[in-house]
């Protein structure tokens, strides 16, 4: 008894350690993914795995694949089985047949008051005038269409992730700019108060400095709220539960040269929307052929084998089989096929026109993204110079103010100019990075 108890303790201890180790591993994995700050590459990895739009597109692709396999089933035979039991009151004259042994089974079954019937049926299409082929072709093209849809969703999610990430970094740096402006304004208020105590400034100057500080505080609160909202937007795109996840990165200027003609060529070759509409055109052509075959002949073979008996326990079942070749052809359907074909041809023309419009729209999208990229690129250097100049101007203004050579208004103007210059510069960096992401998406990358 003690030995069994000892063995039980050893086994339970072993499973306990396995449970502890597994829990620790899962927690460690979760921490590695979400417990650490996420940079842009990690955000893209998480978004392409966890975003709901990606998951929905995956399910649609799985469904399209199943539809493709379903369509192939049209080539295969259809096999079905049935079993029936018939009970009826005794048929008049049935007793007269009881002593006759030469009666055919089918005649005997006709007079039987009980009958068991088992049947196995096979139907095989032989020639359907392309109906099965066109249905398979449409299902295959639809699967390819959904593959491109999945690729398009991935590109859109990647772009939205980059845009939200850059906006989050922009909002964080706007908080830094607002905090810097608040600190400078607060320090200036202290100087004004000191001058007031020394009789070098008026109470009006102190009051204006307090108003400026209150405005700076308001701007700081607004920036902090904007940062929280930007973080939440990014968290929603990533579809993660950890609301306090930190995001690391900087808005940087990395010169990249793009050629507009190469971008347009890349868009026309790689954009999933163009591949999708090409598949739509092929599907529409297939539908025209399918509808036009509605008044064409079809050939199919049907065969069945049957086992019949009046007693279930009997070992001697009557077996028969039948094979039938069927040729069917619609003679008049009220011009239904003609009208359906006409509709299908009209839809095909609509797709062709939409394709032309899409090509021009994609070209315009690339050109617009390229112009935004150039504008952001050109404005970065100018704004960087403005920031450096504004910092020098503020430092000079503060020194001259302390010497009594400048007014309080001039100092506050210098502060405002620095804040505006820093805001414009960081906004230009944001626009530049988003423009690159937009160009890559427009080119189908």
Chain-wise SSE layout:
Elements: H1 2-35, H2 40-50, H3 52-72, E1 78-87, H4 105-111, E2 114-127, H5 131-197, H6 203-238, H7 260-270, H8 272-292, E3 298-309, E4 318-328, H9 336-402, H10 408-442
Antiparallel strand pairs: 1-2, 2-3, 3-4
Helix pairs in contact: 2-5, 3-5, 5-6, 5-8, 5-10, 7-9, 8-9, 9-10
Q: Could you please describe the fold and organization of this structure?
A:
This protein has 445 residues and is of the alpha+beta class. The chain has a domain at 38-76 and 155-297 and 335-442: Up-down Bundle (Outer membrane efflux proteins (OEP)), CATH 1.20.1600. Helix content is 70%, strand content 11%. The chain contains ten helices and four strands. The protein has helices at 2-35, 40-50, 52-72, 105-111, 131-197, 203-238, 260-270, 272-292, 336-402, 408-442; strands spanning 78-87, 114-127, 298-309, 318-328. It has a four-stranded antiparallel beta sheet, with no helix packed on it. α7 (260-270) packs antiparallel against α9 (336-402). The longest helix has 67 residues, at 131-197. The radius of gyration is 40 Å and the shape is elongated. Mean pLDDT is 84; it is low at 23-34.
């Amino acid at each position: 008894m003690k030995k069994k108890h000892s063995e039980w303790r050893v086994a339970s201890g072993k499973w306990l350690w396995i449970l502890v180790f597994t829990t620790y591993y899962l927690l460690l994995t979760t921490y590695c993914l979400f417990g650490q700050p996420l940079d842009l590459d990690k955000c893209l990895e998480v978004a392409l795995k966890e975003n709901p739009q990606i998951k929905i597109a995956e399910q649609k692709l799985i469904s399209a694949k199943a539809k493709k396999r379903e369509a192939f089933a049209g080539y295969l035979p259809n096999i079905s089985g049935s079993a029936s039991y018939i009970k009826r009151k005794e048929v008049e004259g049935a007793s007269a047949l009881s002593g006759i042994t030469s009666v055919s089974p089918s005649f005997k079954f006709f007079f039987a008051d009980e009958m068991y019937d088992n049947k196995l049926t096979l139907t095989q299409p032989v020639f359907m005038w392309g109906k099965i082929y066109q249905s398979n072709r449409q299902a295959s093209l639809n699967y390819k269409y959904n593959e491109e849809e999945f690729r398009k969703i991935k590109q859109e999610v990647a772009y939205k992730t980059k845009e939200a990430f850059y906006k989050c970094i922009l909002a964080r740096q706007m908080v830094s700019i607002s905090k810097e402006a608040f600190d400078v304004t607060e320090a200036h208020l202290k100087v004004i108060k000191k001058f007031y105590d020394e009789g070098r400034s008026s109470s009006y100057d102190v009051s204006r400095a307090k108003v400026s500080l209150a405005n700076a505080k308001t701007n700081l609160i607004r920036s902090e709220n904007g940062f929280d909202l930007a973080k939440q937007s990014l968290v929603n795109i990533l579809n993660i539960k950890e609301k306090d996840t930190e995001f690391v990165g900087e808005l940087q200027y990395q010169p990249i040269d793009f050629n507009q003609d190469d971008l347009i060529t890349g868009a026309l070759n790689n954009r999933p929307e163009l591949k999708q509409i090409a598949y739509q055109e092929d599907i529409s052509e297939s539908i025209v052929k399918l509808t036009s075959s509605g008044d064409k002949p079809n050939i199919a073979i049907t065969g069945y084998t049957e086992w019949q008996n009046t007693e279930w326990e009997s070992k001697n079942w009557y077996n028969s089989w039948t094979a039938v070749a069927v040729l069917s052809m619609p003679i008049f359907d009220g011009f239904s096929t003609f009208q359906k074909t006409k509709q299908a041809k009209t839809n095909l023309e609509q797709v062709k026109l939409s394709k032309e419009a899409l090509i021009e729209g994609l070209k315009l999208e690339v050109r617009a993204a390229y112009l935004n990229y150039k504008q952001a690129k050109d404005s970065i250097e100018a704004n960087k110079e403005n920031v450096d100049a504004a910092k020098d101007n503020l430092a000079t203004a503060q020194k001259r103010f302390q010497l009594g050579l400048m007014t309080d208004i001039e100092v506050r103007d210098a502060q405002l100019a620095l804040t505006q210059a820093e805001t414009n510069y960081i906004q230009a960096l944001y626009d530049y990075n988003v423009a690159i992401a937009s160009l890559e998406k427009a080119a189908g990358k």
